[in-house]
């Protein structure tokens, strides 16, 4: 039975089941022993982000429209475009009846103070048509906002990977406002991050149960996400270029970090063609 990362806080008791995968990159490391322990902290025990200009492409999706209530993360990929996990959109639809009108908060690290945020509202949503709500399905969605973001040091877009990019054996980072402790019932106010090398497919499969719903469009990391981290960006920084969006936090086993099992991310590389097709179709129709 699958338990999604995007369940609401009152349902966190589900995390007591030790062997259930839940919803909340690119591959790598030939064997777990090769991953230095000091660079694989859990995001639930991660580090504070010191400045919003360190991660200006991350936004917070609000569950409710009247007041700000963090639900998921998303990444700015254009002045009016965001990329997130499809399960986050489904949660918005289930809670509000529709994801349209969802407030998006950009340019923040501390959620207790959003007065300086650029707030935009979703006016178009495209979930991947093959997303079924199951952990192994196509967990990705595009959001369009009605008013452009004003790019600055605090708000920027992140680069998409090329369709043939290979991130094997590269260190990536994840950012988010999810739970900082598996026993907590409140999402983090301060933005956290953690980083680690990525697991290649063989290493990932060795750490997951034989029946884990791991697809070819998903990748794994030893960075552990938790409730509230769904849709968070998995990021790689080239030496000579801008940050690249490698993955979106998708699912993992509960309780968070159980048995050192890796978190599974939607591989953005696998969906670059789909992203451009959706954006092109939108502008043809609007």
From TrEMBL:
SUPFAM superfamilies: Trypsin-like serine proteases
Keyword presence, Ligase: no
Keywords: Disulfide bond, Signal
GO molecular function: serine-type endopeptidase activity
Pfam families: Trypsin (PF00089)
InterPro entries, per the entry: Peptidase_S1_PA (IPR009003), Peptidase_S1_PA_chymotrypsin (IPR043504), Peptidase_S1A (IPR001314), Ser/Thr_Proteases_Immune/Dev (IPR051487), Trypsin_dom (IPR001254), TRYPSIN_HIS (IPR018114)
Record-linked Gene3D superfamilies: Trypsin-like serine proteases
Gene Ontology BP annotations: proteolysis
UniProt keyword Signal present: yes
Residue ranges annotated for the Peptidase S1 domain, each copy included: 43-280
Entry coiled-coil feature ranges: none
Signal peptide (from-to): 1-17
Domain of life: Eukaryota
Recorded family membership: Belongs to the peptidase S1 family. CLIP subfamily.
Stated name of the protein: Peptidase S1 domain-containing protein
Gene behind this protein: Dana\GF27274
